[in-house]
Amino acid sequence: MKQSLTYTYVLLVLSMMLWGGTWVAGRVLAQSVHPMTAAVLRFALASVILLFMCWRADGRLPRLRRDQILPVVFLGATGVFAYSYFFFTGLQSISAGRAALIVACTPVCIALISALFCGERFGPLRAAGALISLVGVSVVIADGDPLALLAGGVSRGDFMILGCVASWTAYTMGGRAVMKHLPPLTSVAWSSFTGTLMLLPAALAEGFIADLNNVRPVDWGCVIFLGFLATALAYYWYYRAISIIGASRAGIFINMVPAFAVLTGYLLLNEPIHLSLAVGGFMVISGVYLTNRA
Questions:
Q1: pLDDT tens digit string along 23-36?
Q2: How far apart are CA 223 and CA 227, in angstroms?
Q3: Closest CA to 85 of 2, 161, 176, 179
Q4: Where are the alpha helices (DSSP H) in 122-233?
Q5: Which superkingdom heads the taxonomic lineage of this protein's source (predicted)?
Q6: pTM, full prediction
Q7: Distance between CA 78 and CA 269 in Å, rounded?
Q8: Rounded to a whole number, what is the largest CA-CA distance in the chain?
């Protein structure tokens, strides 16, 4: 059991490293093609790989009962369709590090929902952590002046990334319920496939075919990274961890993503690290730690 838990934690850390890189790869890709095109390329590749993994594991493609179809479609709608739209749209206008720090409040949202609907404890320490994290997010998106939020100082890109928080929280909690009846790999594979089907019509309407002519060699590299490593593998590892240690304990690892994202954004995209970004990020991560400390 101890070896299994250690292995789970190692896979979680690797997932967070890969997800930290998605903010850089996504920002590069978002500068060349429409968000829906980028999302379809990412999840189409991921779906093929995940379904192949299912076939290799079981000798056939996994099947869904009729009562399992709608829950899996919900996962595709939240964790793939909605998250992708918010992710790539937001990265068209704000930096990778800034976006990742906003998303860092996701574990707090997961813990709140778990307390409200799943009976998990949410005492004073967790409440304080949630408040600190939310204030930290306001510092990040308002460039050090949280009062600017009241004066309409938040950009459309910031709101898009907040949409990532909402959609990923729904995806995590939905996955917690779905995996009572389906294994993690099957859940991720079918949610990725259904989400891709939802993305395709929107991508075609936005000029998917014409967009393919704009894809550069570096963009194809980003697609392979996003689809294979950061989606097929990392999504599976994340859901596997939820099935073993629970949503809240797995969610705390998301606070590693901003650190990896800010570091890779600085090294690869020369994105500056402002004082408000550092202070707000520290508050976000501290709040996440307090929220999940118990």
A1: 788 888 878 888 88
A2: 6
A3: 161
A4: 124-141, 156-178, 184-205, 208-211, 217-224
A5: Bacteria
A6: 0.73
A7: 29
A8: 58
- 283-292 burial: b if 16+ Cβ within 10 Å, else e: bbbebbebbb
Contacts of 274 (CB under 8 A, 6+ apart): 143, 144
Nearest to 87, CA basis, from 163, 194, 191:
163
% pLDDT > 90, the chain: 14
Query: Of 15-29, 76-90, 209-223, 248-262, which gets the smallest average pLDDT?
Result: 248-262
Residue partners of 146: CB distance under 8 A and separation at least 6 = 135, 138, 139
| Per-residue pLDDT tens over the stretch 40-64 | 998 999 999 989 888 887 778 778 8
CB-based burial label for 183 (10 Å; 0-12, 13-18, 19+): middle
Rounded to the nearest angstrom, the gap between the alpha carbon of residue 215 and the centroid of all alpha carbons in its chain is 23
User: Are residues 108 and 129 in contact, defined by beta-carbon separation less than 8 angstroms?
Assistant: yes
Print burial letters for 63-74: b (CB count within 10 Å at least 16), e (below 16): ebeeebeebbbb
Say which residues have a Cβ less than 8 Å from residue 211's Cβ, sequence separation at least 6.
Answer: 33, 34, 37, 203
Of 90, 105, 169, 158, nearest to 136 by C-alpha is 105
In this model, does residue 71 exceed pLDDT 50? yes
Which of 187, 160, 152 has its CA nearest to residue 87?
160
The token pair that represents 289 in the structure block: 């730690």
81-101 core/surface letters (b: 16 or more CB in 10 A; e: else): bbbbbbbbbbbbebbbbbbbb
